[in-house]
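Regression test attached.
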Amino acid sequence: MRKTVPLWIVLGVVVAAFLFTHLGGNRYLYFAGYFVLQYIVLATAWNILGGYTGYVNFGTAAFFATGAYSALVLILAFKAPLPVQILAGAIAAGLLGLGIGYLTLRLRGVFFSIATLALSVVLMTVVSNWEYVGGGKGLSIIRPKPPALFPSHAEYLFVVMVCLAAGAVALAWWIEHSWVGRGLAAIRDNEEAAECMGVPTLRLKLLATTLSGSLMGVAGTPFPYYVTLVEPGSVFSLDYAVNSLAMPMIGGTTTWVGPIIGAVLLGTAQQVATVTISSELNLLIVGIVLVAFVLLAPQGIVGLVQRLFRRRRG
Amino acid sequence: MAALLEVRGVTKRFGGFRALNEVSLEVREGERFGLIGPNGSGKTTLINCISGALGTDGGTLIFRGKDITRLPAHRRTRLGICRSFQIPRPFTSMTILENLCIPLEYAAHDQVPRSAVAGEAMEILRLMGLDAKADTRPADLTQIDMRKLELARAMAAKPRLLISDEAMAGLSHAEVDAMLPILFALSERGITIIMIEHIMRAVMRFSQRIAVLDAGEKIAEGSPDEVVNNKRVETAYLGE
Amino acid sequence: MVSLDLLLNAIVAGILLGGFYAAVSLGISVSFGLLDIVNIAHPAFVILGSYTAYAMNRFAGLDPLLTGLLFTPVFYALGVMVYRLYYLGFERKGEESLRGLVFFFGTLFIVEVVLLLAYGVDYRMIEADYVGRSFHIGVVGIAFRLLLPCLVGLMITLALHLFLSRTFYGRAIKAVSQDSQALRLMGVNPVKIKRIAFALSIATASLAGALLILIGPVEPSIGREYIGRVFAIVVLGGMGSISGTLVAGIILGIAESLTSTFSGPSWAPAVSFGILLVVLAVRPAGLLGR
């Protein structure tokens, strides 16, 4: 595929989304769409480190929250516009990823995973003690007027998320097909052998951690405008960790397509389930499906489809 | 011939256990060097120290005149030291061809332009007789093909020094005879080779010089004939 | 100037808390330290033990410690089941241990949500008359709700330590991670040993959970705080060293107690993580590790 084609696809998707918002439609649809798109970013971000490189991050909430709270601080201090918030969130979360990676990636992968799990708890504690952003009770903000071209905030945030999702997927696609992606795959398959084949494993792992964390932070930056009430309990919810992990594992971890499939399927299912059955029961189902896939279909849906095709070929 | 690799007084401990005790040896440029010794004598540990998989507790390693004792493994690979693994460790999610692309793209980064990578990989596969299977996965290979893949990958890293760690363990007579010409061909390309083997036939035929380790110490070094007639070596293998 | 009273009380409370933390960490010390199985769901099983104690207390008036003891075989059986799943899914195939990690994470999540469905988000506590009492030695106040879990925790730790060093199965468990080949030659099935060890680690969760609800009220997500603590203790104490787990537990307990007293209780969860990071960065083998 020529290098410029994906860029046109991304642009096309964004323009299509923008036009779509002017067709009208239920505001709830945009919120639900935002929810799924947000998870496309999170799942794709998780997969860069998890699926491509083989390092499991349980602390998605920590990175997501870093983005959200960076945005919040900028809103409170400077009334900064959204693009600036997104940049800040990307940098802050990227640095967090780099930091935690630097501390733990020279040890076994297990320690990285445990550190990310503990990271969420610690950051939540820090944030809960920080009065400026509302401490444990949280803070309410008022959305400024959406930019001129959008009828309301719902459509604006929706299109923003479409841009972010398209960007994230494009990044994942590029990584997967580049020498970086091949190096990451070598690390995933056999890190020691990769090191012996000249792959600078630590450097690539740090790159993956930084990119992954940064994207997760980016997913979190529009969050304050989305919910208007920013409180630690919801920002640091374990749901983020479980979903951003379950979606790629269910969709398929080896390609950029898997996280999208997982995010759309699981995200939509959850939106439906939360309305029809209780939200806790919905989470239980996510957990059970995750465990089932990890035990029985580790390659996810993409893997199942591939196996089906291989069998047909004979 | 100049010394390509100098091992000077290398020591390695695991807790209280001394796996290597002040081992010194020299491998000359272009040489075919054999490293033998009974099980547990420290051969693999020495190899791990040379390749950088393990750090040393004493002594120095000099490669091409440079002190590499503190250098990380992937840097040593770029300098030209490459090893194959005793138990093959292919990249399971990739095809055979892609397995070779990794060392070509990374270790041989300065020597092979990106556009030539796939072509180079096919060349090496042809040399090994694996080109027909270029698109298969490692899981579908036979034992001997896996061993060949290991050597192929090591070759794709364009090494100056190739360490073949028991590449022929468990192979039949005929299979060993099929692997040896490959190693000879590599040597003819100018690659210095250290061969670790238990299969005496292979080591004797292949090596120009042999070093013998026992219980972490070097007990003999010399031509194959000298080593075979060495009393200490006989004792180490057969007991008193 | 720091009041000596306050300091002493904080340290004593920390020691007592530490003994309890060690008891909670025993399971991980065995499964992660000895078997190399990263069971991050262990805190969830501990919480399960807490809720079991709560339920038995509520509906049968049973003392939590009694419940903890009675249900130990039940948790042992649960451990056997979980290990079977883990083994069939991962260990037998020699798969990446990281997928096993995801498996346990999923299990952690499922247990937490089930408890949430059954009991809701409210804190639950038990009513036992000795819980509220305390006594004084000089200026130091010792609360029963801290003392009892610490003592019981010490007892479990001692029992496990004796089991691992004196009995045949115990020593086999210690050996299985280092030399399963030798075990096979002795006619012992390494898989069976691992299964026993893992089941034991889950069995400790029953009593540990009962102790937890004695110390204070519980709610389903409390387990997550303990993941950081438990792994910090096991890494600090050295993987697989029972005595190390005890020492590390006490160190963590004191650190948390001092932080809680002088910087405020809301900072306590961060302490374990800080310790974990420092240990990982400086000396991953821990204090008394191999």
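Expected vs. actual: identical. Residues 145 and 172 of chain B are 13 Å apart (CA to CA).
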